[in-house]
Each structure stands twice: as structure tokens, then as C-alpha cells.
Design a protein that fits this description.
By secondary structure, the protein is an alpha/beta fold. 40% of the residues lie in helices and 11% in strands. It is globular and about 50 Å long. The mean pLDDT is 97.
């Protein structure tokens, strides 16, 4: 198990005051896996995360998770929303095999978004699915899914890509253009940069990322590392050092460093 103590120690090393802890309970709902007592395991994983977060309420907030296509999705959302350790919902479109070009999948995803909106429960969503993911999928999410949750923060993980390193510019450009044009659907949308810039990111990608972040608006940008202590991705300290490789001004870096997600306030 990766514990809250390990995470807080890494936060301290990076001078990070507060962080979001994301449940990976969605793994049990992956249709490529055969899991006995699936929903029981989803509940147990979410409860474990809630228990870890509760030990550091002044430092950590939790996000529960599940596959939004499952019959138990809204039930688990209702259950998690009653737990003080959870401030939002983590959805992983890729792991859950959600196809935003499939009308049936879109309606199930909209149902979860509507339910979260009713409970004022923010959503953090990993949108990238595969190498085929791009502009068409981004436009479908913007046009068909986002409008179902107009009143809550929706955080697009990994700049609509999947780390490490930025790679889905045709998808993220859709959101960047919408934000730049003051599209009302982007009113409550935030973007995180988890693992989008690493120590190995090439200069041309650094330039592109900086341009897209300016386009979407730096006030929407949240620093993140996508770190599991001792396993996977750079530590928060190293991730911030990598992020500093971007060709941004000191004022722009300070803006991102001082941005506070609505669910942290």
C-alpha cells in the first residue's frame, strides 16, 4: 500500500501545502478484467482512500472513483458524496473504455455528470483513451458531456493527454480555443499539467505546451505530478523542477504555483 504518510513527506520536500488524492477504484471496473465482487472491491478501495485522507484533513482531499458505465455508478457517487474525506470524483475514460462517440456511453457519462452537478461534486477526468483519440473526441466531450455539469469544477487531467509528456495537441487545442473564445461551457473548466513536462521533454514540445497554457489561460492551470510515492512518475519536487523548464515568465510560474483548485478552498 502507498500511504498518506509517504505522500505528505514528498509534499513537504516540495513545499506543497495541499494535494488531491485520487482513488484507483475504477481499475476494478475495467471491462478487460474479470473481477469477482467488483462493486464490493470498488467500495473498499474508495473507503481505504477516504481513511488515508482523513488522517491529514488539513493537507489532503480525496477523490473517489468508479467506471461511469457501470450500473452502480450513481449509487457509488451518492455514497462517496456523503463522506467528508471526498471532495470530488475521478473518472478515467481510457481505463473504463468509455467511447464519447458512442451515444449510449455518452448518455451514461452525462447521467454521472448530472448527478455530480446536483450534488456540487467536482469532477477530475482523464479523457485520453488511445492513439486514436483526438479532435473529434474532444469536440464530442465539449459539446455533449460538459453541458450536463454547468455548475461544478471540471478538471481535465494531463492537458487531455496521458503522461509522461504532452502528446495529444489536436485534442487539447479544442479546449484551448474554446477557452480563448470565452466559450461558456469552459466557465468552470480547469486543466492540470500532471506529467506533461518531464526532464526529457524536447524543446519543441516545451514551446508548444507553453503556448497552449497561455491560450487556455494560466488561471485555469493546476500543477500536478500524478505521483504515487515510490512508484511511478516524478516526485512533486522533481515534477515542479521539470515544469520550470517551460518558456514561461516568472510571473506566469507564480500564477500557476499560487492557483488553488475550487475543491481546495
Amino acid at each position: 500500500a502507498i500511504t498518506a504518510e509517504q505522500l505528505v513527506a514528498e509534499m513537504d520536500a516540495a513545499s506543497v501545502k495541499r494535494a488531491a488524492v485520487l482513488s484507483v477504484a475504477f481499475w476494478f471496473g475495467n471491462p478487460r478484467r474479470k473481477v469477482e465482487d467488483e462493486y464490493a472491491k470498488v467500495r473498499a478501495e474508495n473507503d481505504w482512500v477516504a481513511g488515508q485522507v482523513a488522517r491529514y484533513r488539513d493537507r489532503l482531499v480525496g477523490f473517489c472513483s468508479f467506471n461511469p458505465l457501470k450500473d452502480y455508478a450513481v449509487e457509488e457517487l451518492d455514497r462517496c458524496a456523503k463522506n467528508a474525506s471526498f471532495k470530488g470524483l475521478k473518472l478515467h475514460v481510457g481505463n473504463s473504455r468509455v467511447d464519447v462517440l458512442n451515444p449510449e456511453h455518452v448518455e451514461k457519462l452525462r447521467t454521472v455528470f448530472r448527478a455530480a452537478n446536483e450534488k456540487r461534486f467536482p469532477i477530475l477526468i482523464h479523457l485520453w483513451t488511445s492513439v486514436k483519440y483526438g479532435r473529434e473526441e474532444a469536440e464530442a466531450f465539449l459539446n455533449k458531456v460538459l453541458p450536463a455539469a454547468p455548475d461544478i469544477p471540471v478538471q481535465i487531467a494531463h492537458m487531455a493527454a496521458s503522461g509522461p509528456n504532452y502528446h495529444s495537441d489536436d485534442a487539447f487545442e479544442v479546449y484551448a480555443n474554446a477557452a480563448a473564445n470565452n466559450d461558456p461551457r469552459m466557465k468552470n473548466v480547469f486543466v492540470d499539467v500532471a506529467s506533461m513536462v518531464t526532464s526529457n521533454t524536447p524543446p519543441e514540445t516545451l514551446t508548444l505546451v507553453a503556448r497552449r497554457l497561455r491560450q487556455v489561460g494560466l488561471r485555469r492551470v493546476l500543477f500536478a505530478s500524478d505521483r504515487s510515492p515510490g512508484f511511478g512518475n516524478e516526485s512533486p519536487k522533481d515534477a515542479w523542477a521539470a515544469f520550470r523548464r517551460l518558456p514561461l515568465t516568472e510571473k506566469e510560474f507564480r500564477t500557476v504555483a499560487e492557483n488553488v483548485a475550487p475543491y481546495m478552498r
